[in-house]
Amino acid sequence: MTSVSSVSEGSLPKITELQLTGNESEEAHRLTLACARRHPETDTSDFLRFARTLACRLPMRILSFLEEFRQAEDLHAAVIHGHHIATETLEPTPSTWQNGRTPGSRPYSWLLTLLASWLGDVIGWQSQQSGRLVTDVVPSPGMEQSLVSSCSDRELSWHTEDAWSESRADYVGLFCLRNPSHVGTTLSFLDTRDLPPKILTVLQEARFVFARDESHTDEEPPGETRRSPNVPVLTGNPRCPQLRADRDFMAERPGDAVARNALRMLITQLDSNLTDIALAPGDLLFVNNRIAVHGRRPFTPRYDGADRWLKRVNIVRDLWRTQVDSTEENNRILV
Ligand SMILES: O=C(O)CCC(=O)C(=O)O
Ligand SMILES: [Fe+2]
């Protein structure tokens, strides 16, 4: 069973949770298997055109739970517990994402895509896991200390997914297949009452830069990293601002000491509100990427086939917004 815990003195994020009954879990699983029989892959436009329509056949309690989450302005995450996992047919955890598309894990990619499509449209990045829409999060040899999701010994610092890009996701979906040592996915948020108005004003100004993280692996000219222009960290209605933050990949614009101080105060707040959600097999977490940041606690990888394994999707609410970055061939794959 998932546990949610705050490890610090800070405030807790708002998380909504749904526990499936055995019947609901079975119904969802049956629909998933029917999709898998009819469509060769989750990423095909044939399937994605119908994903939302097919999702209508999911149990009503799941659909209305997701719809409430979608409409809320203040919910940082939603967790659905109790999806059926056929452990007897699930292969050993692969040691690289390249080997993540196994027959036994495939049904959960379908399930994740169906549920995600009730929140929006799934998108992928050409430069990330070869443009796959459903990606795999597994610890990989040689990546233990890296700054990306295949790390293990090192904490994956909190971040807005793809904070560097205007086309970043509105939600990130994480479906847990294995998590033997109950490693926490972390979640944090900003309560604007915790920062002085002057600092909030600075954070609303275009005085910050975000670099693209190293999970994007396409060729870049030597010495050059793709980065955002100068942008604000907080946007939208000051009453409930949207947050864009990445502990490892953000900075103030060069020479701006006032912005540096505001960023330092923001980081302190986000650190102190950091909360752990230890996903159990069959749990699905949707993070609201507009108002929450997420990451992961460190753990010791085993590389014995029993390691932690998640399926992941990025979801946008409006494909028109991301169209500016999409490839010519596929409006769901961004460059
Ligand atoms: O492994 C986790 O729990 C989170 C990983 C993560 O941040 C991601 O895959 O985007
Ligand atoms: Fe992430």
UniProtKB/TrEMBL annotation:
Which Gene Ontology terms cover its molecular function?
iron ion binding; oxidoreductase activity
The family database entries (Pfam families) matched by this protein are listed as:
TauD (PF02668)
Binding, 2-oxoglutarate: T186, R308, R312
Q: Which UniProt keywords apply?
A: Iron, Metal-binding, Oxidoreductase
Q: Does the keyword Nucleotide-binding apply?
A: no
Domain (TauD/TfdA-like) ranges:
152-313
UniProt cross-references to SUPFAM superfamilies, sorted A to Z? Clavaminate synthase-like
User: For Fe cation, which residues are the binding ones?
Assistant: H159, E161, H294
Record Gene3D superfamilies: Clavaminate synthase-like
Its name, as the record gives it, is TauD/TfdA-like domain-containing protein
